[in-house]
Amino acid sequence: MEDDGGIPLDTARAERPVWLLKCPPAASRALQSAASGSVSSTSPNPVVAKIVHTIDLFNLDDPSSEQFNLEMVPNDSGNAPRSYKLNASKDFVPMSTFSESNQGKLSVEGKVKYKFDMEPQNFRDYSKICRERTNKSMIKTRKVQVIDNDHGGLMRPMPGMVGLVSSGSKVDKKKVTPSKGSDAKRTRRDKGEMLNILFKLFERQPNWALKQLVQETDQPEQFLKEILNEICVYNKRGPNQGTHELKAEYKNFGGTNNE
């Protein structure tokens, strides 16, 4: 293999029986914590757990006569259970385990004889871990985003720029889009700015319904009523019934021309 540019594989331990253990995250963290806390110059391979293998010699034909239990050494692992039942399985695809050293050497460490699933014996501690994990997953993470344009001018279309009705046309009440259900979501503009917007709207169309103006300006309805009462008259009768139009003294304000 070296002559062909490949990496040599050490197979000296290829037939050694090994166990494959499917370890839950909590148990894995506890084992790693115990290993890191036990490493010393006199103990290069610290003991982090022990396995108790029990065989019922009087019922060897019974599959349940052979039992495995794992006991982890005491450590600061929080609520992680220390006692587990190992459910063994031999019905799996033949597998081998491999390792790679820091120098890049590859070795076969053995052939898998047992495959285990870990079942915690102390369900109270384990259920507490599961509950804590569920509660953490339900907490929504808030993200803060800095907006350069803090006055909000670029956050929405300017009022009066979309959906304006051409000058001289009659108000079609059936096509009026309903105003927002809650004025609490609308932010009041400066009164002077609102007057300029309203004058431009009345320059394009002499008569406006209140709902139309709320939709066009995106302002609170009560705020609009206060301004309209100052500059407009309300048509109670006639062809423009139910609409507002500018008072005579405001019709030529800002260049408005209704001729």
From TrEMBL:
Principal localisation: nucleus
Annotated keywords: DNA-binding, Nucleus, Transcription, Transcription regulation
Q: Residues annotated as region Disordered?
A: 165-189
In which domain of life is the source organism classified? Eukaryota
Tell me, what is one Gene Ontology molecular-function annotation carried by this entry? DNA binding
**Matching Pfam families, A to Z?**
TFIIF_beta (PF02270)
Q: What region holds the TFIIF beta subunit HTH domain? A: 188-251
GO terms of biological process kind: transcription initiation at RNA polymerase II promoter
InterPro entries xref list: TFIIF_beta, TFIIF_beta_HTH, TFIIF_interaction, WH-like_DNA-bd_sf, WH_DNA-bd_sf
List locations, semicolon-separated.
Nucleus
One GO cellular component this record assigns the protein to is: transcription factor TFIIF complex
Similarity comment: Belongs to the TFIIF beta subunit family.
Identification of the protein by name:
TFIIF beta subunit HTH domain-containing protein
